[in-house]
## 1
Amino acid sequence: MPPLKGGALALTAVALALGTFMQVLDSSIANVSIPTIAGNLGASTDQGTWVITSFAVSNGISVPVSAFLMMRFGVVRTFVISVALFTIASLLCGMSWSLGSLVFFRVLQGGVSGPMIPGSQALLIAIFPPSRRGAALAIWSMTTLIAPICGPIFGGYISDNYTWPWIFLINLPVGIVCAIISWRMLASRETPTRRVPIDRIGFVLLVLWVGALQIMLDKGKDADWFSSPVIVTLAIVSAIGFVAWLIWELTDANPIVDLSLFKSRNFAIGTLAFCLGYGLLFGNLVLLPLWLQTQLGYTATWAGLVAAPAGVSAVILSPIAARVMSSIDARWTATISFVAFAISYLMRSDYTPDSSFVTLMIPLVVQGIAMSVFFVSMLTILLQGIPPAKIPAASGLSNFARITTGGFAASLTTVIWDRREAVHQARLSDSSGFNSPAMVQALAGLHAEGLSAAQSLGVLTRNLIGQAYMLSSLDFFWISGWLCFAVLPLVWLTRRAIGGGGPAEAD
């Protein structure tokens, strides 16, 4: 069918962009709200991160199924139903009465959202004339960069000024408008459908091993890891499930995940570097607002504002980066992104408890430089040499690996943070015993201010814990920076790749 024109084109493009915006927004909007949500639902902050990881992993698992759904039922129908179900799941998230119910509804929300991003991208390209498809991709991609800016700001403002359920309930009007307009404008333009086999066993095994691994990572710390029979069982299930899934996918005639793509050197090494870089990014996105709110006394709003400059600088630089990338080797722009990430993390390792807002924010500006080229560079590298017919499958597989890695990284981040805090707390306690001159002097000063012995001890203990968490955070930032440098050589093990396109995807 011919492309849309005029007002119909503009209205439909906005609706499709809103669908992308809403899905990406929900992958970041809860980050700064975790302390508020956890406190309101009577859970620890560490348990609150399940709200992030459950969505990320469920969304990642659903991505490989999206291609099957769009071929079987049509892109328009699949996209609209996905948006409608996502909106209903958002309503259920807002109605949650406990952390368990919220995590369950976030799993549902992530699971039904799989087709939203690939569907909106495919439909945007279809409704624009060939000469303006670059503009279509630019519209789609810019929404994936703007949403991460708005996510922390919206999440922080809503948590501080309203109640946390509204971070999910704001999806309702957006989802309704997006679904209605998309269906009315595109129902007559449905794509051809065909019956294609679905790898049910492969999908079940995928859910089994990924789900078991994520639950193990989320609950391991609370259950004292492998001293718990439950954690041991989850580890065994995950390992056996992964091996069984691997064997099945390599031998099935119609695998849900085409692992033969890893025969391509660029795809295999590029996907590995992509996942490691994204895992470090996502871990830092989780840790920074958590530390600011739980240890430095920042409100959710101000924690969101600290993170916002990363998205702002990425949006500003992305159009420039896209033009540059059309003529140079993507390995160079990928190198720039990894170096910028490393510098950003290492700058954070110099934070102090009294760092100003500007000092906290500057490394995020540098992170935005990295984000402006990271996604497009890595996708250009890993898709180099992939036959055109397999590019959708390769893109879906790389995104599944990336999103799932992000969920794992979020869980590991809180584990590492708490473990390093315990180490630093023990060291600080040893060096500042109750009989040390510094401790005696501090207790005397608090007594002079009218605090009882118990109150004075409580204040000093709280300060010690705060210092330990600060040192743990600095350790994590420092390690992240050097790991970026360590991953960088992988980029240069790939073959030369020149590409480009719209601004970067940053969901």
## 2
Amino acid sequence: MKKYWKIGLVAVPLASFVLFAISHEPPSPFIEMEVKGVKVDSIGQSPVVFLADKEEKKVLPIWIGLLEANAIDKELKNITSPRPMTHDLLHSILTQAQVKVKEIKIVDLKDHTYYATLYLKLTKGVIEVDARPSDAIILALKSKVPIFVSAKIVDEQAILLPPKSAFGERYGMRIQELTPSLASHFHFKGKKGVLVAEVLPGSVSETSGIKAGDVLTQVNSKEMEGVQDFEEIFDSLEAGDKVKIFLFREGKFQEIDLFLRP
């Protein structure tokens, strides 16, 4: 009996230590993301690939080349080319050489350029190969392997998505949070504002001159610090109101009057 009693005394603190260690496990330096699609941004006419986390709480836009965007779009839609394209050839070579793509990681951002690493599994082990994110993403889709992004990059550059119920536009404007990456892309050096992602055709926002790519800094003299500010002020307005919008577009600030039709 004493023997079991002593074992119990040892087991209790040991279990407590294990639970403490699990609860204080450091967060992963990488977050698994999924490709949600590609789109051409309306201002720079450059293709963008969108990566979202598993919970679809954040999305990371990465500007890429047209050929790579077409290749990613084909993979997402399961469209095959009649003859092998460059990425098809590379994937075929790796397969024939019995080299497997284990995973890819987007590891760094320097001077507005993202850096990725391919992890290739050989018979002797795993090797790391430097790659452009677009090329790495295409190979990940072809090989059906995970895509990981540095947690630091996600924290600093990803766009925080609002709840699905909040995706509705306000008077034809669909807006999103302005990340440092997006601000840099649109040459906006201010600290407060929200980005117009889309303007619905025929809406009062379109007829008033609002355009996709505009950075709204003030609405009726209220500074726009985020999506919530934008939604709150527009939800307080009524049909027939005139709204003064201060915005940044193509390197210049300007003021636009938005008339809310009854």
## 3
Amino acid sequence: MEEKIKLAETVMLIDAAYMNFVIADLKKNFERMLGRSLQEIDLSHLITYLALDASMSEGENQIQVLWVYDDRSSKLLHCHPSDLKEELNGVAFSNPLGEFSFASVPSAEMVSREDLYFDLFDIVADSTDVKKMIIVSFNEEYGDRLHLAMNKVTEKEIILFCMDEPKKEPHYQWEVLAYPLMQSLGIKGDELS
């Protein structure tokens, strides 16, 4: 008999390689534009900002944060904590939104990071426990494939965080990833005017 994997009502599925790609690019460009160094990202703040932008409200929510990574993305750039294997696997933190529990899943030699991401996406999408999926994926690598997969999911609320508006009409919500990242890096709105 198959054992059922118990998932939280809200699951964040994050591609660490994409997060590193965007953080490095934003940090470099905004430091040049603002003429100052930006702070390192407190990961608990970033995850909280993502949850808030995904319309999570205060309460006793259980939110699972699943990180997918490969050898080149096992540490998050400009973040603390940053080590997905040693610091961000099997840990949790709580705040007024609820409890955020972390699990980090490495791609092995047998499966690519992209394929692992889709395997986990399918598990989360098929789970009757999950009501809300918060997606941070490497759209430049596999965005079209993900768009098709997300449009097939009808029983869950899906929020995609990306840098650009989806090219095709989505049947899911999307938010701009830059906003929670900019807030986490300490960029103030009045600096941008």
## 4
Amino acid sequence: MQKTRLKRKSECEWHIEPFGDMRVPAVIFASGDLIEDMDDKVYEQVTNVAKLPGIQKASYAMPDAHWGYGFPIGGVAAFDPDEGGVISAGGVGFDISCGVRTLHTGLSREDVEAVKEPLAEALFRSIPAGVGSRGQIHLNPKEMDDMLEGGAQWAVSRGYGNKNDLIYIEEKGCMSGADPSAVSPQAKKRQKDEMGTLGSGNHYLEIQEVVEVYHTDTADAFGIAPGDIVLSIHCGSRGLGHQIGTEFLRSMVLAAPGYGLRLPDRELACAPINSEIGQQYLGAMRSAMNCAMANRQIITHLTREAFSRILPRAELDLLYDVSHNTCKLEEHDIDGVIKSVFVHRKGATRSFGPGHPDIPEAYRSAGQPVLIGGTMGTASYILCGTDETMGHAFGSAVHGAGRRMSRRKATKQWKGRSVVDDLHKRGIIIRSPSLRGVAEEAPGAYKEVSEVVNAADEAGLARKVARVEPIICVKG
């Protein structure tokens, strides 16, 4: 990474003071080694975001940051609509509301080991995965609009799960302000057969063991302890979210000159929040958020059905569900003034501290669970927000390990069959419809997740609570 303007403020915080057209500083949270490994595009993109109208405080990049479309993946920025603030489709990403959901199982490692192969097969057969995967749910136009407006609440009303699940989902499972009429017919067409599917890429369903606890009090509040088996689901809004992102990026680029916007990068296509296109995008994006939450809710239902056939005594109660590709209207302290701002988190997870009203009551004294996905061969983490995190990057933290090489490069270095066999020798079962997809997601294609999480902890973005390691992974 270019370092000429990077100034180290602490062990894991680096600043780039405004230059050129930058309106605010750029801040990168990372260890020295992670900074060394970041490509120059992160530096370029985080400073370009700092040039957008109405941006508040700073443009931020998380320790797992890498090149993305317009915004870096791992980018956070907030905009004030009263100061000409913009909303950017590139600042949310194509997989709108992609997120992680973690469930308790009430099982031990011994319980799972006894039925590991049949359990892996049952999950693989129950949850469609891979490029273009289709589910057993087929939505008609009214059902589609109801789902886009109701999210996980709609799914529960249809019998996919129970009302108690909704307590532990961000926004209680339904993002208000969704406008299904702002979603194109093509986006709806792409989604009508994709509910209850994982998709491809880095999406997964994983059975994991809690192998280490760092903060016992918080772990107790979350109901986890060493030796516990949990289940995590990582997926988003599938074809609908991708179509919304594609369409609005195109229309925002075309509309930008009419709003007097000079874009530092065409990929930073945006529109004033209060403009017609800005409001349309908000309505469509919120619909996609509801789609993603409904999708994870349905997958949870399918997972419970699979477990009921193999391990019927499993509990499968929801620990938490949080997204990491969103833009939300939130109240934050901006230089001593409480403002309502639109916070873009692209590959970044909300990390609210203790006492925040948006945290489930059971966790409110501990802080919000922050669910960090790793790779199928390493580990994932459960963190939590703290009082300190609210002062950093609008209460945001990392979302995963972060790629260190492209998928194309990964397939040149690894073969899917070899990855599956190597992990099997380590006691990790992989099920996937695509060996090429496995190669693209090889553990070595990602940054070391423990280094990313340690940097987030050191920087005060979130506190480490527990480390979990994979036993079974169903990959898209």
